Amino acid sequence: EVQKHSVHTLVFRSLKRTHDMFVADNAKPIPLDEERQVPQSVNYCHKVKMAVKLRTEYGSVLHMPTLKENLREKGGPNTGDPYGQKQYSGNQGQELEYLITGTHPYPPGPGVALTADTKVQRMPSESAAQSLAVALPPSQSRLDANRTAAGVGDIYRHAGISERSQPPGMSVAMVEAGGNKNSALMAKKAPTMPKPQWHPPWKLYRVISGHLGWVRCIAVEPGNQWFVTGSADRTIKIWDLASGKLKLSLTGHISTVRGVIVSARSPYLFSCGEDKQVKCWDLEYNKVIRHYHGHLSAVYGLDLHPTIDVLVTCSRDSTARIWDIRTKASVHTLSGHTNAVATVKCQAAEPQIITGSHDTTIRLWDLVAGKTRVTLTNHKKSVRAVVLHPRHYTFASGSPDNIKQWKFPDGNFIQNLSGHNAIINTLAVNSDGVLVSGADNGTMHLWDWRTGYNFQRVHAAVQPGSLDSESGIFACVFDQSESRLLTAEADKTIKVYKEDETATEETHPVSWKPEIIKRKRF
């Protein structure tokens, strides 16, 4: 969707581009051309054009030594050129000397008389250009790259293809000067989105009801035998994963339960809620054995550190807190967000804690120091969901404006996943690269993690007796086998999805077109 701007804004941007283009030449007098006879001389105009072009396009390589090639042109297109490049008729039958652009000493300014060597009428033919090598010693960075990366020529020779048989749609571009001839020239074309991996579609196969309020959170235990949910009815329920039957109900919270998680290191279940309470339940006795006091408002989420006995919670009081599980002590209070912290995630590698907030930022935290390492400000709206990829050193964040993917450890932006135009409450990803986003309006989108391709959209019907407005997904999670997807919904149900085993790539093809990538930075 093209954003409309006022005429004033467009004119201002044009002025700014013009200023940036010519700021280097500001206040420099234009030297007179000795050969100029009349002000509109074609020769003078050509020299000015070439001087400006040399400076703007090839300024970074003008210090390189000159390489020339004598090329005898014959009438008509070159018969040895497979691409049939047309030559200028005025140059037919004469021997021309071509200069590789950027290898001549830089002229002092536009309009300066250039020598005959610089009167380039056109670029060399592709066959001529591919035979050139830049006569400079290789840089250290190029030597390092050549240890691992093959040149274009090496790849073509290994495949048994001549270098000249490249597709004619590819343009030849100068790159950093290196010691070998393959690094001097390389094929360049517009980047296109790679074909996404095919994933089978997911289908709804079970709806579990039992809660008397919105189901706000869900977690699967490490043994994959049962799962636990927390609800606005103030209860925590434990369900059998295989049959979907209720095993146990736990009461103790006096307001909506907003987060649950099961420990893999001990027989404990942790829960938090809008009553400001964080509880530790002993599953051998089904009783609360510890409370973690300190948050000043509703606690919206929690996560366990995978390798040490630490619990992290996030709250509407704009902080996240790190707790020692055994001593109940608050190790750190992570301050810095300016609005409610909606989600928190932990991992063993640095940064060990990631938070997303209603102040539109994501923060990566240093667990030892209890301070922010990086603040990501790319989102324009509240960040309610963050998910870490189980295999890659990357993560994704969900907001009504976009789903964004990032690289650890510094939070470098990877790409936007656009199209889920709703308030995204939850994200989940499995090892196969299926990313699931669940929204407040009950829609669920499934994406290919690598390419960002949206391969399926689901909007399950609400259970009978519910209003259509009660269609909403608050949480979703894959089970430990990653063969089932569980969603916690506003119609008081838990929905279970599985892959369609009958689907094939022929019956459900990827409707994908290799469009040119237009990724936004923000």
Automatic annotation (TrEMBL):
A Pfam match: WD40
Record keywords: Repeat, WD repeat
Placement of WD repeats on the sequence: 208-249, 250-291, 292-333, 334-375, 417-457
Region (Disordered) location: 69-88
CC per GO annotation: catalytic step 2 spliceosome; precatalytic spliceosome; Prp19 complex
UniProt superkingdom: Eukaryota
InterPro entries: Prp46/PLRG1-like, WD40/YVTN_repeat-like_dom_sf, WD40_PAC1, WD40_repeat_CS, WD40_repeat_dom_sf, WD40_rpt
Gene Ontology BP term (one): mRNA splicing, via spliceosome
Family statement: Belongs to the WD repeat PRL1/PRL2 family.
Subunit text: Identified in the spliceosome C complex. Component of the PRP19-CDC5L splicing complex composed of a core complex comprising a homotetramer of PRPF19, CDC5L, PLRG1 and BCAS2, and at least three less stably associated proteins CTNNBL1, CWC15 and HSPA8. Interacts (via its WD40 repeat domain) directly with CDC5L (via its C-terminal); the interaction is required for mRNA splicing but not for spliceosome assembly. Component of the minor spliceosome, which splices U12-type introns. Within this complex, interacts with CRIPT. Also interacts directly in the complex with BCAS2 and PRPF19.
Job description of the protein: Involved in pre-mRNA splicing as component of the spliceosome. Component of the PRP19-CDC5L complex that forms an integral part of the spliceosome and is required for activating pre-mRNA splicing. As a component of the minor spliceosome, involved in the splicing of U12-type introns in pre-mRNAs.
Cross-referenced PANTHER family: PLEIOTROPIC REGULATOR 1, WD40 REPEAT PROTEINPRL1/PRL2-RELATED
Protein name: Pleiotropic regulator 1
Organism annotation: Eurystomus gularis
